Amino acid sequence: MNQAAASAKKISIEQLKPGMYVTQLDCDWFSHPFLTSSFLVKTDHDVTRVRDSGTRYLFIDPRRGIDVQDAPTAREAREAAQAAMLKVAEKPAERPRITTFEEETVAARKIYSEAQRLVAQTMADVRLGQQVQLNQLEPMVEKVTDSIFRNKNALQSMNLLKQADDYTFQHSVSVCTLMVSFARHMDFDAKLVHQLGLGGLLHDIGKAFTPNEVLNKPGALTKEEFDVMKNHVTDGYRMLVGNPEVGPIPLAICHEHHERTDGTGYPRKIAADQITQWGKMAAVVDVYDAITSERVYHRGMTPTDALRKIYEWSEHHFDRSLVEAFMRCVGIYPTGSLVLLESGRLAVVLEQNETQLLKPRVRAFYSTRSQLYITPVDIDLARPGTSDRILRHEDPHKWSVAPSRFMNA
Fold first, then answer.
1. What is the C-alpha to C-alpha distance for residues 159 and 174, in angstroms, rounded to an integer?
2. pTM of the predicted protein model
C-alpha cells in the first residue's frame, strides 16, 4: 500500500469543504463526471459538483489538505466491510450440481461465444432500425439458464475473458449469466429466471445508438461525453417499449439498472420505493461486472474487492439485502479469484462450496516461497482432513499472472 492510500481517511459528503484533497470518490468510477478521482477541492463550487455527482462518501489525504480528526482511515473502513462480508458467508444456500466444472466448461465456452456474437449482431441490426428479434435471443437465454443450472461456475468463469474491443457485447452476456445465477439463488420460478436473463442480455441495448467515439473512447469521458453515454438508458427503453413482445421485467431492467436507492442514479433519479426488485438486482450485477472488467483506462478490481465496495455502497446506493444475497450467490471468493493459501501457494478459485463459502475448490499453481510455478493441483478446501485454507485474496497484477490461464489446466 502506497503512502497516499495508507494515510487516506473516509469522510461523508457533508464533511467535505474547500482545502481538502480528495484521493477517491467512493462510488462506481463510471458514475461521476470527473476526469480523475484525485484533486484539491478549491471552492464551494467544487464541493457542490462532488455532491451533485451522487457521492455519499469519499477519501481524503490529510497530508495534502485539511484533515478530519475523527474520520476512520481507509484501512479501518475496508476491514469493517470485510468483517461484514464474512458474516454474510455464514448463511449460504446449498445447490446441487448436475455436471462437474470441467465437463460444463466445454459447453459454457461455446454458449458464451455464441451469445456474444448474437448480441453484436442484435446491436448492429438495431442501428439499422430493426426491432429486437426475441425469437433469436430467447433460445440463447435458455442455453445460458440450462448451463447455470447444471453448474453455474463454468459460465461465470467465462466472464473473466473479456477483451477491450468487445467489452459492450461481452458485458451484456456477463450480466445475463449473473442475473440468471442470481435469480436461481433467489429460488425464482423458471419463467421469472428466463425474463431476468433476457433483461440482462438487453439491458444495454441502447448503446447501439451511442456514438462509437464515445462508446469506445480509450480514456475517461468528459462531462459532455458522459451525458451522451447516459442516454443509452432512455434510448434502449424507448426502443424496447415499442416492441409488444418485450415484457415488463426486461423493460424495468433496461430502464432502471443505473438508478440508485437514494435517488442519485439516472435517468429518472427515482428512489428505492420506486425501483422494481428487478432493477435493484440489475444495478448490483451491472456494477459488479463493470468494476471487475479490465478497460484501456481502468484496471479492474478483484472480484472480492468489488464485492466489498458494493457492500460499502449499499449503505446508500444499493439494496443491502440484495447485495448480501448476491454475495452468497457468487461467493466471497468468486470463481476465477486469485487467492493465497496458508501453504504459501497461489491458487485460482474453480468452484464454490455452497455450504461453506470460505472453502471453495481451488487449483494451486505457484509457490510464493520458492517463487516457482508448480504442477497444478486441485484442492477441495471443504473436504474433511484438508489442512490448507485461504489467507486472503490477491491482485493478479501484483503477481503478473492471469488466473484464467490455469482454470482449464
1. 6
2. 0.84
